TrEMBL record:
<dbReference type="InterPro" id="IPR033947">
    <property type="entry name" value="ETF_alpha_N"/>
</dbReference>
<keyword id="KW-0274">FAD</keyword>
<dbReference type="Pfam" id="PF01012">
    <property type="entry name" value="ETF"/>
</dbReference>
<dbReference type="InterPro" id="IPR014730">
    <property type="entry name" value="ETF_a/b_N"/>
</dbReference>
<dbReference type="Pfam" id="PF00766">
    <property type="entry name" value="ETF_alpha"/>
</dbReference>
<keyword id="KW-0249">Electron transport</keyword>
<dbReference type="InterPro" id="IPR029035">
    <property type="entry name" value="DHS-like_NAD/FAD-binding_dom"/>
</dbReference>
<dbReference type="InterPro" id="IPR014731">
    <property type="entry name" value="ETF_asu_C"/>
</dbReference>
<comment type="similarity">
    <text>Belongs to the ETF alpha-subunit/FixB family.</text>
</comment>
<dbReference type="InterPro" id="IPR014729">
    <property type="entry name" value="Rossmann-like_a/b/a_fold"/>
</dbReference>
<dbReference type="InterPro" id="IPR001308">
    <property type="entry name" value="ETF_a/FixB"/>
</dbReference>
<feature type="domain" description="Electron transfer flavoprotein alpha/beta-subunit N-terminal">
    <location>
        <begin position="5"/>
        <end position="196"/>
    </location>
</feature>
<keyword id="KW-0813">Transport</keyword>
<protein>
    <submittedName>
        <fullName>Electron transfer flavoprotein subunit alpha/FixB family protein</fullName>
    </submittedName>
</protein>
<dbReference type="InterPro" id="IPR018206">
    <property type="entry name" value="ETF_asu_C_CS"/>
</dbReference>
<keyword id="KW-0285">Flavoprotein</keyword>
């Protein structure tokens, strides 16, 4: 199958998010022989990020650097991306289903009068069709979609489609394109970013998440230690956030982040439906809860019934021995 594909990369402070590489792999799946063109917008030097996209499978990359793209705005990124789309006329566009992806892709799709398949977790070729699978009803069911005509435009959920191996021997052009920004309606003075030491929650392959069962902010400490030894990101239920034990940026669930790590360790979390909506598609789920009837055990692959303040430090010690 040969389609010219555009992959919209996402760089934070000039560094690409992993989902960009996964989006390149997705583009390769839908276009085995076609050209894969990457595009990255921002205010930083994007040359190195452009090369990274090439190492991960893009054939060439267009960078749009502009001070007005320092902070994401749908106006600014919209204008930059539409200028590139206009020039390149791709037959398909793929981007990560991130906060920015969720915001910009419907806008682009409406401008181009195209459809959009959002939040795909799998892409398969079945007969003549490319079938996109996406979770619906908070992950309780899966919908299969095909594109019958027009632009193939999709976003992919991070951590589901495996990126290709990095190949430093690949070469390709990284071209800077200048786009004049007109009538930007959104002006953001500054962005306050929570300092997230360590691993990015939405792209983490291991997550240790705490619930109201941790009982206090200090109760998160044993979970932090476990996360440290595992190289995991820390997450939380809304119960823990509402109780003030941790910041809302850690919230996982229907009204929080949706995650799909390889390993999700739920500690002192009851397993409310709204929490499951954000994590039930994790590849392996381990639950630690003192209540054997807790709903979280219904989705867990492995369960430990016990007091988390007893179990978690022991688990950390055991893992340190490995
Ligand atoms: P609880 O339900 O209070 O569970 C605490 C668990 O800890 C219990 O199972 C208990 O047995 C266990 N426990 C207690 N002490 C210990 C111990 N010492 N050792 C081991 N286990 C212990 N929730 C989310 O998480 N994410 C969302 O995005 C979200 N969105 C929502 C949206 C809406 C519109 C609504 C109405 C609710 C939403 N909720 C969300 C809230 C959700 O319904 C639950 O209230 C919440 O998930 C409960 O959090 P929890 O499991 O930490 O707390």
């Amino acid at each position: 199958m040969s389609r010219k594909m555009l992959v919209i990369g996402e760089a934070r402070d000039g560094v690409l998010r992993n989902v960009t590489f996964e989006a390149i792999a997705a583009a390769k799946k839908v276009s085995t022989d076609g050209e894969i063109v990457g595009v990255i917008c921002g205010a930083d030097d994007l040359e190195a990020a452009g090369k990274e996209m090439i190492y991960y499978g893009a054939d060439r990359v267009i960078t749009v650097k502009n001070d007005q793209l320092k902070t994401y705005t749908s106006d600014g990124y919209g204008q930059a991306l539409l200028a590139v789309i206009d020039e390149e006329s791709p037959e398909g566009i793929i981007m990560g289903h991130t906060a920015i992806g969720k915001d910009i892709t419907p806008k682009l799709a409406s401008k181009m009068e195209s459809g959009l398949i959002s939040d795909a977790i799998q892409i398969e070729e079945t007969g003549e069709n490319l079938v996109f699978t996406r979770p619906i009803y908070s992950g309780k069911a899966f919908e299969k979609k095909i594109i019958t005509d027009g632009l193939l435009f999709a976003t992919i959920r991070p951590n589901n489609i495996k990126a290709l191996e990095r190949d430093d021997s690949r070469s390709g052009e990284v071209t800077a394109k200048s786009v004049e920004m007109k009538d930007l309606r959104t002006v953001i003075q500054d962005v306050i970013r929570k300092s997230t030491d360590g691993v990015d929650l939405s792209e983490a392959s291991i997550i240790v998440a705490g619930g109201r069962g941790v009982k206090s902010a200090e109760g998160f400490e044993p979970l932090e230690e476990l996360a440290d030894v595992l190289g995991a990101a820390l997450g939380a239920s809304r119960g823990a956030c509402d109780a003030g034990y941790c910041d809302y940026s850690l919230q996982i669930g229907q009204t929080g982040k949706v995650v799909t790590p390889d390993l999700y360790i739920a500690v002192g979390i009851s397993g409310a439906i709204q929490h499951l909506a954000g994590m039930s598609n994790s590849k392996i789920i381990v639950a630690i809860n003192k209540d054997p009837e807790a709903n979280i055990f219904n989705v867990a692959d492995y369960g430990i019934v016990g007091d988390l303040f007893d179990v978690v430090p022991k688990l950390t010690e055991q893992i340190k021995q490995i």
